[in-house]
Structures are given as C-alpha cells and as structure tokens.
Design brief:
alpha+beta, outer membrane lipoprotein receptor (LolB), chain A, 13 strands, 13-stranded antiparallel sheet, 42% strand
C-alpha cells in the first residue's frame, strides 16, 4: 500500500509540474509571438493583405500644428510604386520637403536650401520610402528581416513590438495594438535623429485602414497632424519626386558631387 501511495504521489507531482510548465511557457509563447505572425495579423486587420497589391499611389493632405509655439501649417505626403516618396511640411515662412525619387534622396528647406542626401540620411529615407509604399508586404524581396515580437505597454495599451532591419542595416521599429492588430506607432531613423509617428482615428479607404490622426516628433519638436484627405490611386507624376526645378535655385550638380567624393577618397 505504501509503495502504491508513493507512486500516486509521484505521478501527481509530475502532473502538477507539467501543468505549471505548460502554464508558464504557454503564457510566454502568447506574450512573445513570432514577428512574422504579428505582421500577418496586422496585414489582415489593416487590409494590406488583400488590397496592398492594388494600390499604386497614395496622397495625404492635412493640417499640422507645431506644439512648441502653436504654429499651424499644412502637411502633404505622396507615394508611388515601387519606392517613390515625398513629404512636405509648410508653416507661414518655413517650408521643408524631403523625397526619394527611386534613385537618390534629397531635401530642401528654407534654412539650408536644396541638397542631395548622402550616407545614413540617404539610406534611411530610401528605406522609409520603400516602407511607405509597400509597408512590410515585400520585405523578403528587399532582404529585410523582422525580429522581436515581444509584448510591452505603450501609453496604457498593450502592444507587440517588431523591428524591420534592411539589408543596409536600417532599423524601423513598429508597434501594433494587441487588440485591433493595427499599427499605432513607428520609429524611423533619419540621419542622426529618429522620427516617431503615432497613429489613431483609423478609417477604411478602399478597404485599407488609414489613420486620420497622426502625432509626429523629431528631437524636441512635437507635431499633431489632422488628415483631411487620404487618397489611393490618384494620377501621380513621377516628376513630383525629382529635384525641384526653381528658377532662383540652382539644382545640385550630381556629377560634380560624385567627382568631389571620389577625389577625397583617393
């Protein structure tokens, strides 16, 4: 009898331990899903899975508020397949634009004028342009690796965090609401800074959930953007992404620039 009792106790102990292990590791698995499974859920929830292949271009127009001085202005962004992107922010006396035209990146503002971006800033904007047009739906083609997948808290919401790392080692951090599976935050590098975008007020545009409320920050500056118009597949001229042709502003001499870089490296 004693031996049987001990055997039963041992079996019960094994079962209890097995249940505890299952509960602990099962909970860890739930909290740390694979990044690819998170991206698949997000693609389905946002409509990218069905509709992304049908979107050739996008245009966003809205109002922007700079929180440091309550200055108001306009925000515009447009994208075009396969990887063209341009963003323009204009306040009363200040305007800044940055763009990737499929081959090179440029930036223009009221302080420094028009210039070609090189180095990290160029690679960062190139990666952002591809992401704006394709999101994470064509990551494999670009040899972009998804990592992370852990659950954390962001402004009182539980989120899944996924990092996309491009072949050029540009890291784009994405945060997805664990309830809706929608993308609610991005952290995108731009040179020596990081731009943070936070999204809300999603509306269905041609079957895709698009944000009409955007909070953007870069360094110490904070902005709030209220989107007034979000359009897909509108006629878009590729020249919109090229270096601006301004009669009073000389275009950068790309050949001379490359010759200068070559001479300095030799």
């Amino acid at each position: 009898m004693g031996g049987k009792s001990m055997s039963i106790v041992k079996q019960a102990a094994v079962i209890i331990i097995a249940v505890l292990v299952f509960l602990i590791f099962g909970k860890l698995i739930i909290h740390a899903q694979s990044p690819n499974s998170i991206l698949k859920k997000a693609a389905k929830a946002s409509g990218f899975q069905k509709e992304m292949r049908n979107i050739n271009s996008s245009q966003i127009k809205g109002k922007i508020l700079r929180l440091s001085d309550n200055a108001s202005g306009t925000f515009q962004a447009e994208s075009l397949q396969p990887n063209l992107y341009r963003e323009t922010i204009a306040f009363k006396n200040i305007e800044s634009s940055r763009s990737f035209n499929g081959k090179s990146a440029w930036m223009r503002d009221s302080r420094d004028g028009l210039r070609t971006l090189t180095g990290e800033a160029s690679e960062d904007l190139k990666a952002e342009a591809f992401f704006r047009v394709n999101r994470w739906m064509r990551s494999k083609e670009e040899k972009t690796i998804a990592s992370g997948g852990g659950k954390s808290s962001l402004f009182g919401k539980e989120v899944y965090a996924v990092t996309l790392t491009t072949a050029k080692n540009v890291k784009i951090k994405l945060f997805f609401d664990t309830v809706s599976n929608l993308l609610i935050r991005e952290e995108i590098p731009f040179g020596n800074k990081v731009r943070i975008y936070e999204y809300g007020n999603f509306r269905s545009i041609n079957g895709v959930q698009e944000p009409f409320s955007i909070k953007m920050s870069e360094g110490n500056e904070r902005f709030e953007i209220q989107v007034e118009e979000f359009l897909h597949n509108v006629p878009t001229n590729r020249e919109n992404f090229d270096f601006p042709r301004n009669a009073n502003e000389k275009l950068p001499d790309i050949r001379a620039f490359l010759d200068e870089v070559k001479s300095k490296s030799s």
